[in-house]
Amino acid sequence: MSIVNLKAEFGMKYDSSDIGRNITKFRKLKKITRNKLAYKACVDGTVLMRIERGENSPTLDTLLKIIDGLGVSLAKFFRDFTEH
Asked: What is the CATH number of the domain that holds 29?
C-alpha cells in the first residue's frame, strides 16, 4: 500500500510526502542543492532525494540531521504542519 493511500485510508493529516515537500521548500529557500544538503546532513544523496519525493519515510535520526543541515529550528520546520 502506498503512502498516499495510507493517508487517505486512515484520515491522516500528514505523511512522509508532506515532510519531503517541507524539506524541499526549506532547501530551496536556503538556495542549497540537494547534494549540498546531503553533505551537510551526513545523509546519502539518494536517500535525501527519495525522502524529498515522498518515496521513503525518514527515520527520526535522519530527519533531525536534515533539519539541522537546513539550519532551521524544529519549531520552524514543523510550523506549517500546526497552522493548517
From this structure: 1.10.260.40
